[in-house]
Each structure stands twice: as C-alpha cells, then as structure tokens.
C-alpha cells in the first residue's frame, strides 16, 4: 500500500510541475487531437484544457498549415526522431500575444518548437509531445543587433565617401 501511495504522490508532483513549468507542453495523438494542454498553453491561449482535449489542433488553430505541420510530425511518429521549428524559420506556430514587459516592442511571442516521440511500452509511437519555448527576448535582441550592425556599416560607408 505504501508503494501505491508513494507512486500517487510522485505522479501528483510531476503533474504539478508540468502545469507550472514556463514552457508550453502539448501532447497530440496520431490524429493530431490534443491530449495534454499545460498551464503555459492555457495562460497564453486563453483556452482551458477541458476546451481543447480531444479536439483537432487544426480546428483549434486554423492558421497552422495542416500539410506543413503533418510533414514535420511524420518522422517523429514513424522514425521516432525529434523535429525542430525555430523562430528564425517561422516566428511562431501559435499566434500568442507578447506579454513580456521588457520586449513589449513585438506584438507576438516568438517561439521555438520541439516535437518529440512518446514511445509506449510496446515500442510504438502513438503520441508526440510538442514543447513551445518563448524566444521573444532572444529574437528582439538579435533584431536589435542586426539593426545596429546595419547602422554601423552605413556610417562607415558614409565616412569613406566624405
């Protein structure tokens, strides 16, 4: 009985951690129906887990290009490999407003996404996890650095012509 209680307590704190971590966590089945939707996703989307569970990701977020996303997810399901989407390739997957006070210059949250296979005890991949990282601070910093480099380059060119 003690082992069952320990297992239950461990499960409880693990679930609490998944809900409070500052990373979006979504679990999708092979039909791309949402199975898990953590607190980060709830907070940024305004959608409760009960509102998204068992619903198609593409119905919930029609702006996500279905063919493109399915192509990205296919090797995750079939080859059991990870797939990555960076903010430099595509600024965001979920068009969440930017709530960061320091980087308030951007309207939307820049995101990096990792798709990972969730292998069952039988070795099958029936689910994948999607982790959504807020990269807005990094993106804003890089954009500011690039703008500064252009300004310096233009100033150097102007100095040469004078």
Structure commentary:
The protein has a single domain, classed as Beta-Lactamase (2-Layer Sandwich), CATH 3.30.450.20. The chain has 162 residues and is of the alpha+beta class. The chain has helices at 2-20, 39-45, 49-52, 57-60, 66-79, 136-161, and strands at residues 24-29, 34-37, 83-85, 111-119, 125-134. The model has no long low-confidence stretch (mean pLDDT 87). The N and C termini lie far apart (85 Å). InterPro entries: PAS-like_dom_sf, PAS_fold. Residues 17-132 form the PAS fold domain.
Outline of the structure:
The chain has about 160 residues and is of the alpha+beta class. It has six helices and five strands. The protein is elongated, with a radius of gyration of 20 Å.
**DSSP, total strands:** 5
**What strand order characterises the main sheet?**
2-1-5-4-3
Tell me about the largest β-sheet. Answer: 5 strands, antiparallel
**CATH fold call:** Beta-Lactamase
> Class in CATH?
Alpha Beta
